[in-house]
Amino acid sequence: MKVGVVTFPGSLDDADAQRAAQIAGHDVVPLWHGEHDLRGVDAVVLPGGFSYGDYLRCGAISRFSPVMTEVIEAAGKGLPVLGICNGFQILCESHLLPGALIRNDHQKFVCRDQRLRIENASTAWTSAYSEGQEITIVLKNGEGGFVADTGTLDRLEGEGRVVARYLDHNPNGSLRDIAGITNERGNVVGLMPHPEHAVEELTGAGTDGLGFFTSLAGLVGLTASTFA
Amino acid sequence: MPKVVVDVMPKPEILDPQGKAVQGALPRLGFSGVVDVRQGKRFELEVAGEVTDEVLAQVHEMAETLLSNPVIENFAVSVLDPDEAADGAR
Q: Which residues contact A111 (CB under 8 A, 6 or more apart)?
């Protein structure tokens, strides 16, 4: 599949996300924040980093960049979109996902290998896992505390829209240990930890993250024209 | 030029780690008696011409769409008193 990776000013992990998609067997298409063009991709990754310097709020300014207009429209039609870390923040600011991400409750930046449990293995980005599977990938954030009102949290849990939860240790004060969520349709996923940093034995915390990128292969039959 | 002010505050039920850090620092500096600190943002928008109802409605829209995130923050719009603005400049 053709996987687009958006680069915003201040993106850090776009190159790693491109590499992860490539290792998973996809054709990688770099996308630029300033263009109203998705270049016919079949899926989009919004990578981690500090887009627009995290000014105002993380993701608040990126959400109004030209490429996001296209991403939001295509996501509404079912285009698979994965937001990692800053990408998750952008998806929340875009209202493609509910809730928000605030400063870690302990006020410090955190960087660690994090154990997670995959809670929903039926999304576009998690079908390569099994429900309940435990994986370890890198977590690194300063503003990764997932918050939403009680009604929203209950709905997310009731509808099976919590994609992954933190195990052993809640690293950032996220409510109900939520590490990632999805939309109703399961095509948009936001995740605070970084699967793209765990795709090769040589670096990172093993290869547990690769499944997020190989999951797309399960979406055969979908082409860019489906979302045009 | 008239100024319109948008004050943005974290909602009461949202944890405010920055406010907590400030609150923790105050006693160390010898300031006592502060039982809670909430940290927000203040935007001063300088507008061309008069501050009409239409301008205020637009500022409301700006505050709702960009300046605040309604999921975690509340905002309040006010017009800066010209005397107060002059005081501030002194």
A: A138, A139, A140
